Amino acid sequence: MFHYAILAHPGHNRIYFQTALAVANHEIEAIMAGQGITLRRFTELTLGLPACISFETDQAIEGEALKALAAASLFYALFQIHEDGRLSPVAAPQWQHFPESLSQILKYTGKTNEQFTRLMVNLAHSACRTGSERLRLVDPMCGKGTTLYEGLIHGFDVEGIEINTKWVQEIQAYMVKFLKTGKYKHKLVKAKRNDAKGKKVADQLVIETAADKADYAAGRVQQFKLCGADTRQAQWLLKRNSCDLLVSDLPYGVQHGSKNAKDTKLDRSALTLLEEALPGWHQGLKSGGALALSFNEFTMKWKEVAELLAHQGFEVLDTPPYTGFLHRVDQSINRNLILAVKA
Ligand SMILES: C[S@@+](CC[C@H](N)C(=O)[O-])C[C@H]1O[C@@H](n2cnc3c(N)ncnc32)[C@H](O)[C@@H]1O
Q: What pLDDT digit, counting tens, does each position of 5-26 carry?
């Protein structure tokens, strides 16, 4: 039996810390299950450390499993707890392809907290059954790109769709500046996405880059794609069966101005938007691909989202550790999370 304690990242949500810990427990359980390791028991111990969570396993956590655990959203440091109560630090391997500052630098109203975004990415990753060697992650409502930056940090190819064209321009400017400042080799290309009749649906920005110069020279690049468009056109924007992970923080019931001519009034229902967008998202995912969506329970209920997903042909993950994520963000947002896999 091995006994471990993870010291929680000091930047973790301190206001709702108890809930944050409970949510992170599910994430850690999912990450480890994805590595074939069952966790016995979560206990909150004092241990003389600031906030931490502890658990037991049958086998030592090392290699790929340790790497996966080190990527957990609340991870700061790992200790092994010995029978006599001694703690010994376990050196965490480097799992990040790009520095974490990539998703931390930008601060703006409407940003999804980068640790929560990482939690969603980890959950989707642990549920993904595509078996792809290189994963492609899409955020079809990407805001100013937190999910995309987290995906790059994980070493994935990433794609984003965002209706707010001002934000799309800001993402482009930020990415280019970040890569130039960090002296990362990169190539920027502009492409077009067309519909079945060959009519242009959107411009697409494509950046190819690598954190390592030798990888770039050998063509082992990570792709970053971005379209300024309505996500309801995703069927033309995403290549069919191309994505392994779909991770998105849905609009919280606030107005989302539509560019679609048939919609002249402002649609305040994020659920309607989701219903209209899901066919294109489903088409873009590979079979076995996993989806993680967060949403405000004040605007839509987990059960309603689950019904839409099941209707679209997704298998909703409705047992632990993929349930029990409801948590308060502020007075107007009671955030929940749903996981599903494309059958
Ligand atoms: C909660 S925010 C996502 C924030 C993002 N995760 C971040 O950290 O920047 C939801 C996003 O959905 C976008 N959105 C709303 N309706 C859309 C649509 N029809 N197509 C594409 N994006 C849309 C909004 O503009 C907003 O940026």
A: 999 888 766 666 677 888 889 9
Tell me the pLDDT tens digit for each residue of 297-322.
988 999 999 999 999 999 999 999 99
Other C-beta atoms lying within 10 Å of the C-beta of residue 105: 13
* Predicted TM-score (pTM) of this structure: 0.94
Report which ligand 1 atom has the smallest distance to the Cα of 230.
20
What is the mean pLDDT of the segment spanning 248-273? 63
Residue type, 310: A
Answer whether 70's CB lies under 8 Å from 92's CB.
yes
C-alpha 190/C-alpha 207 separation (Å) is 9
Domains and CATH numbers, the chain: 2-90 (3.30.70.260), 101-342 (3.40.50.150)
| Residue 39 DSSP symbol | B
Helix, strand or coil for residue 12?
coil
Taking the alpha carbons of 169, 97, 208, 339 in that order, is the dihedral positive or negative?
Answer: negative
What's the rounded Cα separation, in Å, for the pair 280 and 333?
A: 27
Q: Which amino acid is at 250?
A: L
> Is the CB of residue 105 less than 8 Å from the CB of residue 178?
yes
Residue to mutate (ligand 1; options 118, 144, 256; most atoms within 8 A of CB): 256
In Å, how far are 165, 197, 254 from 108, measured between CA atoms?
16, 38, 16
Q: Which residues contact 278 (CB under 8 A, 6 or more apart)?
A: 308, 309, 312
Q: How far is the CA of 219 from the centre of ligand 1 (A)?
A: 32
Distance CA 144, CA 172 (A): 10
